[in-house]
Amino acid sequence: MEDHIAATRPLPFSPAKHAPAANWRDLREWIALIERKGTLRRIGKPVNADEELAAITYMATRNEEAPALLFENIVGDTSGSRVLANMLGASKERYALAVGIDPNLSIAEMIAATRGIMNRHVAPVRVAKSKAPVNEIVLRGDDIDLTRFPSPKFWPGDGGRYIGTGDITLTASPDSGRINVGCYRQMLHGPRRVGLYCSPGKHGLLDREAWWKAGKPCEVVVAYGIDPVLFMLAAQVFGAKESELDVAGGMMGRGIELTDAETVGLPIPARAELVIEGTVRQGDVLDEGPLGEFTGYYGRERSPQPVIDVTALHMRKAPILTAALMAKYPSCEIGAYYAIMRSARILDDLERIGVPGVVGAYAHPAAASGWGIVAVSLQQQYPGHASQVLALTAQCPAAAYYTKWIIAVDDDVDPTDMNEVMWALSTRCHPAEDIDIIRKTWSTGLDPSQVEMERRPYGSKALIDACKPHRYLKEFPQPTLLRRSVYERVAARWAELGFAEPPPRLTSFHSE
Ligand SMILES: Cc1cc2nc3c(=O)[nH]c(=O)nc-3n(C[C@H](O)[C@H](O)[C@H](O)COP(=O)(O)O)c2cc1C
Ligand SMILES: [Mn+2]
């Protein structure tokens, strides 16, 4: 039997009251930060927004280390705009720079740090209109022409140009006044007309329907050039009563700056690049979609969807619009951060339920952007423990949607390291005995594996026990591990032996 040392124990976590704050205030300051760190590339040559911008982004991001791409010269643009793509992408370093944690942390450490800052809420602060950078230019009514801005068509089969992908959309609940922040795709229909697709159950859709039920149009505010923290939180699911603005403030370590709008009752993000205000009226629909999705396939078919009537526009001069390419990993904008945040929330859920022994969890980004697979590690403490952790992980709120494969591994296996997970699957799992299936689970119309659309919302899940069989823990074959004394001796001589990098950190050793 190997003996495990402290590094495989649960990482300490508590709401981070005194955690470091992000040391930037808006997209421009954050871009300057990532440029200093060498993880931004400016593209000054002319680039066409029609498929070419997305092609460059996709080709550059086939490599996990790809920088963020700032397109400074879009063919035919008369608005002076620039477009930022791969803002976060597969980069855990840019994620860390966005939320103010150490970019050199391991993924497991980033997940632990994220649990701390995501559980810290800070309310927004209000700034005067005259102090809001987004008010450098303010237009109303027919002075607005959104077709002047570069709106990418990403994939050949996309149904149109999408001004909104890397966006945030604010709506209010007419009952509680809670302001929701969601990221919903927005296809450009005309100078003051923008499609707004929200899928069933999304807060933007629930807010909209509540206004319509009261016989009123739904007011919306949308930012098309936005900082990475608001963007990330807009794409995360929180409780219906929680405002993503408070969570964003917690992650930033200071309240999000908001200012008053011109034509609607909602606030607008004061430091955004480009913001529109408008209303969505019941029955006002236009054909919308499809759009290439995070699954690496086109999503739902073209269908009539509600339209925003734009009433006011705010922008900085030479605004930087944020475009989120949806694609197979590592080219998906939501690669690294989604995996880290989802894993953090799965661990929060398991801790709340109170199941003991859970050490780590990871929703690997290559599995349909963190949706397809969750690996969870545990220190087995009693018969049936691994089965219990598998079932609870599969159906806890943060993991239940979509996830098809839930894999339990022992605490000597790092769930954030797919090489180790595959080793456990291949040496500790006996498929005939160790796989259970749950049927009719919560899934999505975006899962292509069910060809018939009407079947798609019902998924299924495989619970895979890749832990050593509890019944034979004592007899289970000993893995090949180094003797600790030899490891320490060699590690001490590592540089002398000619290795420039530090020695690898090992946590399990041969036991006598
Ligand atoms: C780039 C991008 C595009 C998205 N497009 C949509 C969309 O068109 N419709 C939708 O319902 N959700 C979309 N999502 C997912 C939502 O942002 C996510 O479900 C979020 O939780 C919605 O906020 P809510 O929970 O407050 O409703 C998108 C996410 C990203 C990152
Ligand atoms: Mn929400």
Features:
512 residues; alpha+beta; 9-stranded antiparallel beta sheet; 5-stranded mixed beta sheet; 13 helices; disordered N terminus; binds flavin mononucleotide; binds manganese (II) ion
Q: How would you characterize this protein structure?
A:
With 512 residues, the chain is an alpha+beta fold. α4 crosses α8 and α6 runs antiparallel to α7. 24% of the residues lie in helices and 24% in strands. It contains 13 helices and 23 strands. The N terminus is likely disordered. The radius of gyration is 24 Å and the shape is globular. β10 and β11 form a beta hairpin. The strands form 5 sheets. Strands 6, 7, 8, 9, 10, 11, 12, 15 and 16 form a 9-stranded antiparallel beta sheet that branches. Strands 18-19-20-22-21 form a 5-stranded mixed beta sheet, sandwiched between helices. Bound molecules: flavin mononucleotide and manganese (II) ion. The site of manganese (II) ion has 5 residues, from β9.
